[in-house]
Amino acid sequence: MRRYLVAGNWKLNLGPAAGRELAFGLADRLRGRELRGDVVVCPPFVTLAAVAPAAQGDPVQLGAQNCAAWDKGAYTGEVSAAMLAEAGVRYVIVGHSERRQYFREIDQDFVGKIDQVHAAGLKAIFCYGEVLDERKGGRAEAVVEAQLRGVLPRLEGANAYNLVLAYEPVWAIGTGETATPEIAQHMHAHSRALAGQLLGAETAGALRILYGGSCKPDNARELIGQPDVDGGLIGGASLKAADFLGIIDGAEAACDG
Ligand code: PEP
Q: Which residues pair with 5 in a beta bridge?
């Protein structure tokens, strides 16, 4: 039985004061609830320290949005996975479409970063997904296959415990347009089958695959209720406590069937 994961990607939003307020608000509302999944918030680096006291795992955990592909050295502006671990981080997002688009990151970067995340004892959330033209051209499955084949077999020590996949159709990110539950389930089943080929059937069966792309309180239950959807990576709706909590409620309701 896979535990769901709901992870909030705050992107370039919320400095220390605002981040602390949101994180403590979430922690206060969730404390003492017996959730059947995991909840993670991923603030900007500079906000991590302010959020850490609210995100020590009961039940909110701390995540980061990026890390270096190296452990140390002359890489101005970079932050290593080991430093993030020391700051209380448990999860690191890698491969987000915005990193691909605006920072030109490619498979090789993702392999280096995920290996660093794993070497630091953290969990990676690896994002992938097709753009609109690729979907319209009937190439969504092939694009996803290339993105997974380009990274998963090259990882040094990936397993179902330290790796989470996040299928994020780029046409649904921040657009208000959500994949239908049928599309999400189809792409997740496709991803799991590929992960079976690349990492082994046992790992693939236990691997959590999140959906990301305009997930909201009113669609979370149906999306996360799909057999191969194990939670959500949430952008815009993670910035408001009520919306993020509503998505967690949707995930809990999905557990009830
Ligand atoms: C994301 O950026 O990972 C994301 C899913 O954003 P949104 O929820 O705003 O579509």
A: 38, 231
pLDDT digits (tens, 9 = 90+) for 24-59: 999 999 999 999 999 999 999 999 999 999 999 889
Q: Write the CATH number for 99.
A: 3.20.20.70
Owner of token pair 């290593």: 80
96, 105, 130, 134: the catalytic one is 96
Q: What is the domain count for the chain? A: 1
Based on the residue annotation, tell me whether 96 is a catalytic residue of this protein. yes
* Strand spans (E) along 55-162: 60-64, 91-94, 123-128
Question: Is 168 considered catalytic here?
Answer: yes
What is the tens place of the pLDDT at every residue in 215-244?
Answer: 999 999 999 999 999 999 999 999 999 999
Q: Residue 68, SS3?
A: coil
Rounded Cα gap, residues 58 and 34, in angstroms: 10
